[in-house]
Amino acid sequence: MTTTTLTRADLTEAVFQAVGLSRNESAQMVEDILEELCAALARGETVKLSSFGTFAVRQKSQRMGRNPKTGDEVPIAPRRVLVFRPSHVLKAVINGLTPPDGMNEDD
Length: 107
Known about the structure:
Mean pLDDT: 89
Shape: elongated
Structural class: alpha+beta
Radius of gyration: 19 Å
C-alpha cells in the first residue's frame, strides 16, 4: 500500500496531460469542479459520480457519548456528516478485478 496522497496539483497535471488545456486552465477546471461538489454537499444534495461512487450528507441526532479517559457521560451535539459509498466498479478496481465489458452502472 502506498503512502502518497493525490493532491490538487496532481489532478491539475492529469487534466493538463489528458485534455490538453493550459496548466492555468486545468487548475481552474479542477477548482471549479471541487467548488461545485462542495457547494452541492453544503446544500444537502447527493453527488453521484458514475463508476466512482456517491457522496451524501446525513443528519445525525444528539446522543450520549462517554469520555474514554474519565468515563463521564457527555452529550454529542446533532451534526451533519459526509458519507461516501463507492460504486461496484470502483470496488472492483480497488480489489484488482476488472468489471465485465459494458459495465458502467452505479451502485
